[in-house]
Amino acid sequence: xxxxxxxxxxxxxxxxxxARALADAGDQVAITYRxxxxxxxxxxxxxxxxxxxxVEQAYKEIEEKQGRVEVLVANAGVTRDQLLLRMxxxxxxxxxxxxxxxxxxxxxxxxxxxxxxxxxxxxxxxxVVGLLGSAGxxxxxxxxxxxxxxxxxxxxxxxxxxxxxxxxxxxxxxxxMTRVLSDEQRASITDQVPLGRYAQxxxxxxxxRFLASDEAAYITGAxxxxxxGLGMGH
Length: 234
Fold this sequence. Notes:
CATH architecture: 3-Layer(aba) Sandwich
Structural class: alpha/beta
EC number: 1.1.1.100
Low-confidence stretches: none
Number of helices: 8
Strand content: 15-25%
Keywords: Fatty acid biosynthesis, Fatty acid metabolism, Lipid biosynthesis, Lipid metabolism, NADP, Oxidoreductase
Catalytic activity: a (3R)-hydroxyacyl-[ACP] + NADP(+) = a 3-oxoacyl-[ACP] + NADPH + H(+)
Shape: globular
Number of domains: 1
GO biological process, one term: fatty acid biosynthetic process
Largest sheet: 7 strands, parallel
Strand order of the largest sheet: 3-2-1-4-5-6-7
Radius of gyration: 17 Å
CATH superfamily: NAD(P)-binding Rossmann-like Domain
Pathway: Lipid metabolism; fatty acid biosynthesis
Mean pLDDT: 95
CATH class: Alpha Beta
Oligomer: single chain
């Protein structure tokens, strides 16, 4: 059956790859985006997840056009990297508000329909940085680590209603965000990865597609790394 899916931040990079993978599997996919022109082939809803009213309006539009959200992939996120002593209050708070509190907003709204239906799939896109830490990314790492506690709490809270909640923790992925790095920076990163390369967005998407499938019905509260071995043991 075709399900109603929402991928936040689904207009580029990992989010777009996830949206395409789920659409290819036969689902109806809505995406949120904040700016620019969204990709064709999806129900694209402009939404800033730091604004509760925009989140509510986005859900109303999705529910009207493709039904209640049965699968939610919380992918939208930002970075504002800076060393601790140079990091402003706004640098810290804005990243937490988008990455963690924004995830809370979209998950809470999706859970309403999932609880009534007694079924649902929630997948949060975290990062290996949330497990390993990264100099200059205390705000980003804190937001991504927070997703783990959030997801595991929800797994316990919602599991009896047939709702699973899992986390995917990508490593370094070949996207527009990482292509701006110099060759020297990219080489330094791949030297740390046992598989010796960046991930492709489609490799992250394949894991999300599995967690959203019937085959993963007995998996909840899991943190699945897709990082080429970078974070093993964490």
